[in-house]
Amino acid sequence: MNTTENQGMLINSFEPKIVGFLCNWCSYAGADKAGATQAQYPPNVNIVKVMCSGRVDPQFVLKSFQEGADGVMILACHPGDCHYKEGNYRAAQRYQMLKVLLTQFGIEQERCFFDYVSAGESDKFVQLITQTVAKIKELGPLNLKVTV
Fold first, then answer.
1. Most buried of 13, 24, 74, 76, CB within 10 angstroms?
2. In the chain, how long is the greatest CA-to-CA distance?
């Protein structure tokens, strides 16, 4: 087997490690509902429940990548539905800043994903997990050249 075939096999067998930061009130509830209905989705996401997406510090994301994550998801309440009034707006603003920061560390912006999922959107949760895993598989493993 030549090197190209070996690389193709490694990419096909690559299972990404993804960290998902989910707000307690909406996104986590949507994930819980997906689990309760036994919806099928890839098991690649390790969920971290946070009280509010606005509490997700960019350092948490950088630390996730440093500790071996290939991708990170931040899922928030829909605009106007935040239990803490504006935490999701703060999270959306931080996400824009975070994308610039990731580029400075040589991490593709596509490895960090932000979206809104309500408690009743278990189907959307499953769809986002599935799409994110596929996208990270396409990108391949994260090989950090510098220490974050």
1. 76
2. 58
Is the pLDDT assigned to residue 146 strictly greater than 80? Answer: no
Fold type of domain 16-139 = Rossmann fold (3.40.50)
Query: Which pLDDT does position 1 carry in this prediction?
Result: 46
Q: Are 141 and 16 in contact (CB under 8 A)?
A: yes
Long-range contact set of residues 109-114: C-beta below 8 Å, sequence gap at least 24: 110/135, 110/139, 111/65, 111/70, 111/71, 111/72, 111/136, 111/139, 111/142, 112/61, 112/71, 112/72, 112/73, 112/74, 113/71, 113/72, 113/73, 113/74, 114/73, 114/74, 114/75, 114/76
125 contacts: CB under 8 Å, gap ≥ 6: 27, 30, 31, 33, 34, 41, 75, 117
- Domain positions in the chain are 16-139
Q: Are 74 and 50 in contact (CB under 8 A)?
A: no
